[in-house]
Every structure is written in C-alpha cells, then in structure tokens.
Design a protein that fits this description.
alpha/beta; binds pyridoxal-5'-phosphate; globular; 8 strands; TIM Barrel
C-alpha cells in the first residue's frame, strides 16, 4: 500500500510541476510519519524516501535511533523550548519556528553541540486561532531579529493551511506566503537565504506546488489515516 501511495503522490507532484512550468526536482516530498510505526517508515525508506516529518520530540528521537542515519528529519510540529536540546543535533530542518525566544533556545543548544541548524519561520497566514505561527505583519521583523543569532540559518517559510474540502480555497494562503517570501528576499537580510517554502499537505499539495512550494508534507496520502489513542 505504501509503495503505491508514494508512486501516486510522486506522479501527482510531477503533473503539478509540469502544469506550472516547474522542475520536479525543485519540489521535495516529506513523508509525514507521525503516529506511524517504524515498520511503515522502513517501507517508505525502501521506496526511496529520505525526508521524514515528525511533530513530537520524543517520537522523533525514538525513530531517529531506530532508522538509518542518512534520513533527513524534519521537525514540523510545535516545539517547546525545554525540548529543543533533544533534537538540535538530529534534525535536518525545523519548520516550526515562530518566536524569537524559541529561536534563541535553538541557537544556544546548537552552539553547545557545535552544529548549525536550518530553520523555517512558521506563519499562520490564515490567522486560525487554533494554530501556531507568527502573523504576516510580524514576520519580517521576526526574521530580522532571528537572523542575528549564531548557529542557525533561516532557509525559508512554512505554513499550515486550513482543512478545506476544496484545495483551491487555500490558494490565497499559499500565494500570501510566497509574497512574504519574495518581500523578505528583496530586503537582503544578512544570514537569511530564502530558498524553501514548506506548504501543502495531503489535501492541497498540488495547489501549493502551483504557488511555489519547495517542500510538501504528506502524511495520510502515504501512510493512510492516523488513529490517535488516549
Ligand atoms: C500532520 C501534518 C502534516 C501531514 O498532514 P496530512 O494531511 O496527513 O498529509 C503536514 N504538516 C504538518 C505540520 C502536520 O502536523
């Protein structure tokens, strides 16, 4: 099942890229494996997946220990400052940085471990109350402040769009995120190399690709529905 799903998602990515005149290799697929057992991640790995997304620190660390070391782990969930120390030397990228205080903690812990961490700034473009992320208005200033910190590099922006039946409804949010990305790039802020737009999930990744996504985060579309217990 996982193999077929991955093939289908990749084919959809290819078609979406073709439609919008983009190169397929400019869009990376992150297999969002949260709540799923290592056996399923292993299967995705065998199908060629090397980018995995997790949203909980403990789960990421446990899977990191069990899975091959050439995997790029993406932290995509809300991150508490007291847990940063467990993952700074294990993650390839943290997509969910939305405050200066969190960035300061990442910078500090990365310094202790002698690593440089790539981060994305999470923006709550749709202004949903239930979601984390900075506001569109505050984004530029936050990027300027975080950019002064050592041991981390801002690589781009991330957003989680609302859950909608019709993916086209989210086009406006993806456009907005790209616009902020372009604005920030024009400012030529030191230490900021805007290259990545992390946007689009199972329900709307094709729409996100049309608006410039470089990372799409697909969970259900690869691993099936998630069942939460407790
Ligand atoms: C769970 C999650 C996803 C994947 O969601 P699906 O709809 O299952 O593809 C993507 N991004 C974030 C931040 C998530 O928490």
């Amino acid at each position: 099942m996982i193999r077929e799903n991955i093939e289908r998602v990749k084919e959809n990515i290819r078609i979406a890229c073709e439609k919008s005149g983009r190169k397929t290799e400019d869009v990376a697929l992150i297999a969002v494996s949260k709540t799923k057992p290592v056996s399923m991640l292993q299967e995705a790995y065998e199908c060629g997946c090397r980018d995995f997304g997790e949203n909980k620190v403990q789960e990421l660390v446990e899977k990191w220990e069990q899975m091959p070391k050439d995997i790029r782990w993406h932290m995509i969930g809300h991150l508490q400052r007291n847990k940063v120390k467990y993952i700074v030397d294990k993650v390839y990228m943290i997509h969910s940085v939305d405050s200066l205080r969190l960035a300061e903690e990442i910078s500090k812990e990365a310094g202790k471990k002698g690593v440089t961490v790539s981060i994305l700034i999470e923006i709550n473009v749709a202004e949903e109350e239930t979601k984390f992320g900075t506001t569109c208005e505050e984004a530029v200033q936050l990027v300027e402040e975080i950019a002064r910190l050592p041991h981390l590099v801002i690589k781009g922006l991330m957003t989680i769009a609302p859950y909608v039946e019709n993916a086209e409804e989210n086009k406006q949010y993806f456009e907005k995120l790209r616009q902020i990305y372009v604005d920030i790039n024009h400012k030529n802020i030191d230490n900021v190399y805007m290259a990545e737009l992390s946007m689009g999930m199972t329900g709307d990744y094709e729409t996100a690709i049309a608006e410039g996504a470089t990372y799409v985060r697909v969970g259900t579309g690869i691993f099936g529905e998630r069942f939460y217990t407790g």
